[in-house]
Structures are given as structure tokens and as C-alpha cells.
């Protein structure tokens, strides 16, 4: 009799648990991607500080009539951002690998008081790392705020809700984001990329080069804050697209970039201070390649 009673109680408990689970599931399913999008955009307005990890891989294929060269560029970085005081710190390690060589460099970037400080270590014996600095216009801050850029893309894009996934053990909604490219080029991120390309010596028409851009966003169910972002960007350019002498050999360059950002430690106290030596930084523009790398990697991500 007792055994039957216990079995009966267990069955009742299982049924109640199942009903509770199904009730929760039904509640989650009723939350549309439009509601998720609206909630995330609203929540981000309350974020004052956060940390992020940045990982990018760019595969470049340069081809001409006789041969081709492949290069893989990998960037691993970790950053801290204070949206209230408009300060940022980012440490990056970069490796550029071809069939013949591998080059490694380290970079530290600080943004304080509308000034960007950068320290580049090329790992060349006898050539010590040097701090440089340049003034940043007030409006350029938005191009450095990783999270704000992701939310701007989310706001101008077509969004599809995918199957839920876990990120580091955290239950997340997964959003597939396809940006409206016309709106993208008018966005903060698009404007930063265009400006960076225009400032280079190659006269690149970046709008013509970029062939595709897609993104996935993982949103924590517990906080409704972004947890992870992945982007895929393809760019194709030929020598005809660039401002180079016609006497140079014709070529085509294809770049496939994959970007991943992890966001964490929201609204936790942070301290961003210039390291020793940065105050004496040389006041000169960064070299064009460094300028473009900084804008693309810190802005898009970047791109």
C-alpha cells in the first residue's frame, strides 16, 4: 500500500514538473524575436561598463595571372570599456602567416580624454616599441564602442530567431542578423570603415569591395544582455578598383574575415589608466595600415 502511494506521489510530482516545464517553454515561445530585439536594445541603454574578448581570423588570397599568395591574419584581444567616462583599453596580439613567413606583433590601445594612445611592438630586435598618440573627435567615440555598434546593427537589420544554445553554460536566444546594406553604410560602423578606407593611400571604394556581411547574436535569457557575437565578412577587390599605376601587374584580392566577440562583467567597476611611458607618447598620426587595422578591428568588430 505504501509502495503504491509513493509511486502515485512520484507520478504526480513528475506530472506537475512536466506541466511547469511546458508552461515555461510556452512562455518562452511566446516571446517573439521582435520582443527580444526590443528588450535587448532597451537593456543596453542601462550598461555603463563591460569587458570583451575579441578574436578575428582573416584569410586573404592575392592572385595574378601567374601565381597566388595566401595569408592568414589572426587577432586575439581583450578589452575594457567605460561608456560613462568614454574610456577604453584594448590589448591585442596579431600574427600574419604566409607560406613562407610568420610575423607577430603586440599592440596596446587606450582611449582617454578624446585621445587615442597606441603602443606597437613589432618584435624586431633593436627596434623598441614606441607610444604614439592622436586626438580623436568627440563623435568618433561611438566607433570604438563594440556593444553599441552591435546594437546599431541589430536595429537596422532583418532578424530571425534560431534554435536556443548555451554559451559558457548560459542559456541564450540566438538571433540571425542580416543588415540592410544601405542603412549599414549610413551607420556609425559603416561610416568609420569608409573613413578609414578613404584615409589610406590606395583610394579604396570599400562599398564596392564588401560583398557580404552576416551576423549572429547570442542573448542571455537570464539578463537579456548580449553574450556573444559572430560576424562573417567577404571583400573582393581587383587592381582595377584601386588607385595604383596601370603599369603594375593586374591582380585580384579576396578577403574572408570571421569575427567573434564575447561580452561579460557588465556594470562592474573598472579602472582604465595609462601605463608608464604612455604620457610621453609621440604626437603623430598612426601609420595608415595601423590606422585601418585599429578602426576595423575595434570598430566592428573589426570588422
Give an overview of the whole structure.
By secondary structure, the chain is α+β, with helices and mostly antiparallel strands. The protein has a domain at 33-69 and 141-299: Clam (outer membrane lipoprotein receptor (LolB), chain A). It contains seven helices and twelve strands. The protein has helices at 2-30, 33-44, 146-155, 181-185, 188-199, 206-209, 288-299, and strands at residues 49-63, 68-82, 87-98, 102-112, 115-121, 130-135, 157-167, 170-179, 210-220, 226-238, 252-264, 282-283. A twelve-stranded mixed beta sheet has the order 7-8-9-10-11-1-2-3-4-5-6-12.
Q: Fraction of residues in helices?
A: 25-40%
Write down the CATH topology of the domain at 33-69 and 141-299.
outer membrane lipoprotein receptor (LolB), chain A
Tell me the fraction of residues in β-strands, as a range: 35-45%
Mean pLDDT: 76
Broad shape: globular
Q: What is the strand tally?
A: 12
Beginning-to-end CA distance, first to last residue: 69 Å
Low-pLDDT runs: 1-30, 286-303
Reading side by side through the largest sheet, how are the strands ordered? Answer: 7-8-9-10-11-1-2-3-4-5-6-12
Radius of gyration: 24 Å
Q: Would you list the SSEs in sequence order as H and E?
A: HHEEEEEEHEEHHHEEEEH
